Known about the structure:
mainly alpha; 4 helices
Amino acid sequence: MPKDSLEELRLTFMQDFLPVGMAIVDRVKKEGFSELVQFFNDSDDPLNQLRTEGDLAAQSVRQKLDDISPGLGNPVMNVKVSVEDSESEDFSLLNESELLMVLERVEDRIDLLLQYLDESN
């Protein structure tokens, strides 16, 4: 199994299956297994309800896993970044000319500052 598939499986488990599992365990503890079966029979969307119910408990478990090893419980999302080199000749010349103007202004101000310091001594 490729590494990306394992990461996707772990992410799915942490975000989807863990909250549902935590809610199922909590319901069985409180109401018993027969009530859980009845809940699945009566509910229109039991998985979403269980995911919502178990989200807080799942966050707690994920945080404890992160305390053991950062990123274990709350996996870092993979991001693809691409950089396009859109600089053209005209654009670089424009930047150079602007840079020269700024440098000339800085040089003029430094000269004025030096004159002022010479006059004050």
